[in-house]
Write a structure and sequence with these properties.
The chain has three helices and no strands. It is mostly helical. Helix 1 packs antiparallel against helix 2 and helix 2 runs antiparallel to helix 3. The longest helix is centred in the N-terminal third of the chain and has 26 residues.
């Protein structure tokens, strides 16, 4: 049952990533494409947790990928809130 829930969470992360990709295509805002990549990374980690055995030694690598996804979200937020230089 746990694997089924992990699979559903992986699918939900993939769909959320697609929504952010659609918002990026409509607006051209870099924030949305970075969020899409981050959510796809979250989906990959959920799928890996469902596929790999519980006693797997790959757990550390999975959490490093998750840390990278959170880092991407942080970078996107900081980039969005940076003051922009005016062309004048």
């Amino acid at each position: 049952m746990e694997d089924c829930i992990m699979g559903a969470m992986a699918m939900a992360c993939a769909v959320i990533g697609l929504f952010f990709l659609r918002f990026w295509r409509e607006t051209g805002d870099r924030l949305f494409v970075i969020f899409a990549i981050a959510f796809w990374l979250f989906g990959v980690t959920r799928a890996a947790l469902a596929i790999l055995p519980e006693t797997s030694e790959h757990g550390f690598a999975i959490y490093l990928v998750r840390l990278a996804a959170f880092g991407l979200i942080l970078i996107a937020i900081i980039d969005k809130n940076r003051p922009r230089r005016s062309a004048a």
